[in-house]
Design goal:
By secondary structure, this protein is an all-alpha fold. Helix content is 64%, strand content 2%.
């Protein structure tokens, strides 16, 4: 899967400008938090963040940092979406648990071999199970859990298409 296709899917999950009082991410647009935007050099008002600038941020701050292109395309997309929604470190540890290896957050040869030796659909199902369990432990579950669960369901549908 290309970054472009992954981005188009991802942006379908993300909305315009929000600043929900229960969201620890604060001011967010296109799913990009102000903190993430600042870390990559965006200094404008979050309401003014363009879709094109969000695309650039997603490419550099998530897709490339999580090395999503080193996996089977279906797995790469799923990791990308989890990384955006839960952080890169959490996403990698979830993927490692799904693959049955130590969840140290470092994708080395052992992790890559385990991922490549698993059935991609089974791995994606297990990754999304890890994701759902992670969400239910968050203090913000009551506010955002329904939306997160819908996102997981949609990603499982994508997995069936992609594998």
């Amino acid at each position: 899967m290309t970054f472009e296709k992954a981005f188009e899917r991802l942006i379908g999950h993300e909305g315009g400008y929000v600043n929900h009082p229960s969201d620890p991410g604060g001011a967010t647009k296109w799913g990009i938090t102000q903190r993430t935007a600042r870390e990559v050099g965006y200094r404008g008002d979050m309401r003014d963040l363009s879709r094109d600038r969000a695309r650039e941020i997603y490419l550099t701050a998530y897709w490339l940092r999580a090395r999503c292109d080193q996996y089977d395309g279906a797995i790469g997309y799923q990791l990308f979406d989890v990384a955006v929604n839960s952080g890169i470190g959490n996403a990698i540890r979830m993927l490692q648990r799904a693959a049955g290896v130590a969840d140290d957050g470092i994708v080395g040869p052992v992790t890559l071999a385990a991922i490549n030796n698993r059935d991609p659909l089974a791995l994606i199902v297990l990754l999304n199970a890890e994701r759902q369990a992670f969400y239910t432990r968050l203090s913000t579950w009551e506010s955002f859990g329904r939306g997160w669960s819908r996102r997981v369901a949609e990603n499982l549908r994508y997995a069936v298409q992609d594998v």
